[in-house]
Amino acid sequence: MTAPLAVSIGDPAGIGPEIIAESWARRRETGLAPFFVVGGANVLAAAAKARDLSVPVEPIEDPAEAAAVFSHALPVLGQEDSDYTPGKPETRGAALALHSLAEATRCALLEMASAVVTAPIAKAQLAQVGFEYPGQTEFLADVCGLEREDAVMMLAGPSLRAVPLTVHCALAEVPNRLSQGLIEHRARIVSRALRRDFGIDAPRLAVCGLNPHAGEGGRFGDEEARIIAPAIETLRAEGLDVTGPHPADALFTPRARQTYDAALAMYHDQALVPLKALDFDEGVNVTLGLPIVRTSPDHGTAFDIAGKGIANPGAMIAALRMAGAMAARRASHG
Description:
The structure is a single chain. This protein is of the alpha/beta class. It has 2 domains: 1-145 and 299-334, Isopropylmalate Dehydrogenase (3-Layer(aba) Sandwich); 152-289, 3-Layer(aba) Sandwich (Isopropylmalate Dehydrogenase). It is built from 14 helices and 12 strands. The chain has helices spanning 16-25, 27-30, 41-50, 66-70, 91-109, 123-127, 136-143, 174-177, 180-198, 223-237, 248-251, 254-257, 268-279, 314-333, and strands at residues 5-8, 35-38, 57-60, 74-77, 115-118, 152-156, 161-164, 204-208, 241-246, 262-265, 284-288, 294-297. Strands 3-4-2-1-5-12-11-6-7-10-8-9 form a 12-stranded mixed beta sheet, with helices on both faces. The N and C termini lie close together (12 Å). The mean pLDDT is 95.
């Protein structure tokens, strides 16, 4: 792989800087591909010190320098910085987070980086500096010139891959947002991505029902018969291996998880609750359908434990490893 990974620092008052620093410190034992961080050199150095880590930070002027630096220091691109105030988010830190996200994405789009790995942000803080998106997934779709429905969030861990078909909306809005077209469109994107980025030649998709017991023959709702089942039939007719609609309370058992490569859930918590219950410390948020590779640890800023040296870096390490593997697979297949 010729280009390093670009890492956005996230909110500098959260746990992002310290788990990035610890990921670099564990780079050899975890087999991480070279990466650089956009901005926040002082923040990263202070976060590493607070965690009692020996992490030299070295500024770089070009992403191409990162690979040579990575073996002995954590490469940081750019001069943008902030104070390190763990647990106490502020406007200057939010500005750094936004700049870091935008610049890391630009590096990937220009192929100066092989992937983007985004540390957690605080949406309320970013809104104060002009960030108008529900989340980073929607931002990436817009920057990549895609419709938002073309960027699909998948949560992936060692035990489960799950895709919420509706994401950042109130639960009461979910039935009206679901449509046969939405399910079909996102299922196709997931299937293509599992082949391209995960090397699964014949992906198996399992689709959740919306209602308890998948509607139980219409007793608890008609969305399964009216929307979900017709979408599954269309996808099967196209040759995709899709099953369902399955009762969500049975789809995430150990035995059931052996029968599919990804589960398609109808709403946010239907996908994230089982993923976090099973793989919280290794869960990765992957954005499918983009022209670039993007991953992120599947947790938030955790302001309450920032700077205390107890944040688990496992999900950041997993996000870096997954980004490196996906980028390498894309590079090898063109």
